[in-house]
Amino acid sequence: MIVPDPSELVPLPGGSQLFTLPGRKPVGWDEERGAFTLSEKMRIGKKEIECTAVAAFLPPGHIRTLLPASQMRTGSPTLPLWAYSSVGWKGGKFWAPGLFIDPNPHWDPKYFGNDLLLKKKVALSLKKESGNRLLQQLARCALEYHCFAAKNVFLRRWECPLPTSPSCNAACIGCISLQPSECCPASMERIGFVPTPEEVVGVALSHLKEAEDAIVSFGQGCEGEPLMQWRILERSIRELRIRTDRGTINLNTNGSFPDRVRKLCDAGLDSIRVTLNSPHPKYYNRYYKPKGYTFGKIVDSLLIAKERGIYASINLLVFPGFTDRETEIEGLIGLVKKTNLDLIQMRNLNIDPDLYLHAMGKGEGVGLSKMIEILKKEFTFLQLGYFNRTKEKFYPHG
């Protein structure tokens, strides 16, 4: 446990959420004693109550830099799939250790709160396209799961999700759409069908033609691996690019099929984002549990994308105390040098901290701020952020 650096403490940003951590005792820093203190019980009036640890969940664009300090009780449950950050109270407000890494305003929670307008837009869209199953899926994602990207579809703006694959060739520990019954519940139900190219185009074409800063993205939280349905993607991309050159077509993927990536690049793909938790096969395999592919395939996919002139990024699942270990940073530097990446998207990993550390093993990080400083010094061309980018903003300094 460490005391947060005051430079990383920020007032809890708007759009954050606070959670209790069942089965966890809170640990805090006692300034007078100069030591960490475990809070098991406290007295309020005549009652003595058991203390429960709390955590914050930071909004999009922010990465947490420290995990909650707590001690597990016997039989404590596995926590749901959120990115838990330490949080404190001072001067009449909550504070959290975090970094604002991407100022893209399109993901500010204030733009996604008008549920009455959203319901009207959804109803109107479904009335016009009543037979499109993909649109029906996105309506559920927008209204039931409150997915920001799905809401964009009906508000005709920014990034539009295009889930296509019920199947996956990995079994990620922190998969948010499919979990074994003995673990925590998945965050959402995975798509149960494969949309036709006509259904994909029915959603994507009008978005590309009409939306502000339009992006359409294959590979979403409510599906498996989109490359499992690469023929659907290829036909859809070709048809979209025949009918419009506007907007950005993006693929979020695990990068497990380089040959399929090549075909999608040739079909008209603009950008690719490959997700990983570590540049080392050992730790990648522990988290992703890949089925029928190796880490080398991921590297090959990134190399192919760059050879084809595609904007290439990785979605680095950030976990304080692991991602910022020296060996992880060294491996990441090697990966960037080998693939000539354009962007590292740094996303908070949604998982029970104890579950992840049990899988990855113990270690000590240098701090995420220090890690970012090292990357910026090593690569002047490398962009760091949180969100996918439109093709107009691929190379802002180029």
Give a short summary of the structure.
The protein is α/β, with parallel strands linked by helices. 31% of the residues lie in helices and 23% in strands.
Model description:
- The protein is of the alpha/beta class and 398 residues long.
- It folds into 2 domains: 6-100, no CATH class; 133-393, Alpha-Beta Barrel (TIM Barrel).
- Helix content is 31%, strand content 23%.
- It contains 11 helices and 18 strands.
- The chain has helices at residues 115-128, 133-143, 148-155, 197-210, 230-243, 258-267, 281-288, 295-307, 326-339, 353-360, 368-378, and strands at residues 9-11, 17-21, 24-30, 35-38, 41-44, 47-50, 53-57, 62-64, 70-72, 88-90, 93-100, 157-162, 212-218, 248-253, 271-276, 311-318, 343-348, 383-385.
- The strands form 5 sheets. A 7-stranded parallel β-sheet has the order 12-13-14-15-16-17-18. Strands 1, 8, 10 and 11 form a 4-stranded antiparallel β-sheet that branches. It has a 3-stranded antiparallel β-sheet with strand order 4-3-9, with no helix packed on it.
- Strand 3 (24-30) and strand 4 form a beta hairpin.
- Helix 1 (115-128) runs antiparallel to helix 2 (133-143) and helix 4 crosses helix 5.
- The chain is globular.
- The mean pLDDT is 93.
